[in-house]
Amino acid sequence: QVQLVQSGGGLVQAGGSLRLSCAASVRTWNMYAMAWFRQAPGKEREFVATITWSSGRTDYVDSVKGRFTISKDNVKKTVYLQMNSVNAEDTAVYYCAAAWRPNEYIYWGQGTQVTVSS
Fold first, then answer.
1. Residue 117, class by beta-carbon neighbours within 10 Å (0-12 exposed, 13-18 middle, 19+ buried)?
2. How far apart are CA 64 and CA 106, in angstroms?
3. Three-class secondary structure of residue 41 per DSSP
4. Rounded to an integer, what distance in angstroms lies between the CA atom of residue 108 and that of residue 99?
5. Strand 18-24 and strand 33-39: pairing?
6. pLDDT of 20-69, one tens digit each?
7. What span, in angstroms and rounded, lies between the C-alpha atoms of 50 and 82?
8. Of the candidates 66, 31, 37, 62, the residue with the CA atom closest to the CA atom of residue 50
9. β-pairing, 104-108 with 4-8?
10. What is the C-alpha separation between 14 and 6, in angstroms, rounded?
11. Cα–Cα 20 to 30 A to 114, which of 31, 36, 40, 82?
12. CB 81 within 8 Å of CB 67
């Protein structure tokens, strides 16, 4: 059974930094990509960042470009989201996800709360 186990998150002050991790308990040799999504209170889940597993190609939503960095460790089968210069709009539950085809994220982590205080 595929599991994505998230860690990190919590309370951070505006302008601060935080790192999220997501470890996959699955063979990743043919996995297409992993990504981070987030859902703020009263809003729909939105895409944040993705990384292609084989090439390392990354993509970001405009609102986090230049502030967030997605990266991966193939050996640890883990994806990270480094969040810098956070602001109140980054407050949300963050989810990692895995895809074996482009844009088909079929496995999800348990979610982790990130709260930015002013």
1. exposed
2. 24
3. coil
4. 9
5. unpaired
6. 999 998 776 688 999 999 999 999 999 999 999 999 999 999 999 999 99
7. 13
8. 37
9. unpaired
10. 22
11. 31
12. no
